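Quick one: structure tokens for this chain, please?
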Amino acid sequence: MPPIDFIIYPIIWILCGILAAFMYSKKGRSSGTGFWLGFFLGPIGVLIAAFRSSDRIGMEEEQLPTGTIRGGADKMMKVIAVAIALIFIGWIAWSQLSQNKDNEAIQHYNDGVNHYAAGQKDLALADYNKAIELKPDYADAYNNRGLIYYDKTEYDLALADFNQVIKLDPTSNNGFNNRGLVYMQKKEYDLALADFDQAIQRDLSSAMSYSNRGLIYANKSEYDLAISDTNEAVKIDPSYYRAYYVRGLTYETKMQTETTLPAIQADKDAAIADFRKVLTLNSDSTVKDDAQKQLNLLGG
């Protein structure tokens, strides 16, 4: 079934076309030109027809006997009043339908959030699809649908959704941050780095964005920059376990590049401390198991 506005718009436009044709008419004969003017211009066509009809009445007033114009002018004023009333009614109807669609889209979005939280990702995906169908400019719905595609490793679909988020809401860091994650999974590190830069510019208080950029620097073997970013993430949010995890991995990898025993030991101690912090802060069994695995490798 097509969206309701695809039905309402043509009806309003055709009504305006009929009104414009009638207003252009002379002695009841409809004008094809007036109809098409109204059809293509909608309410604007009616207004143009009203002005032209008023001009015609003014011209006829000089030609017709006294007393014959008043009725014609009154008739035209009634036509204009009816036209304005119909246009206003159509606008009210369209506004109400649009509001109903927005409310329905929000309801589907909220259902999607609840389904996702319950681990029902397919149901959540269907909810976000419906929300977007009802409200094509719903940036949050695109963002959440993109996250589901990301979880399902459908990175091209996720990328398309995050591109749409950025287009609809370029001031938010969500689209850039999440698109950066997709680029990171695709090992397009320079593109990911550029997106995380943009995300941080839009929200300097985002621990997640700093942590994500730190991970990119670590993947590019720029360990000092990675540690600097994860330090900032921990400073912003001391409970953000992912920053400790990324920093621990960075120290563990950096340790293998050191040339002196004190430097190796310092990196090892720092990595152990970060992985232990992950265990105390995080309840996700997968992350905890991985942190414990890293500790076992380090002898911590």
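Residues 26-30, 55-62 have pLDDT under 50 and may be disordered.
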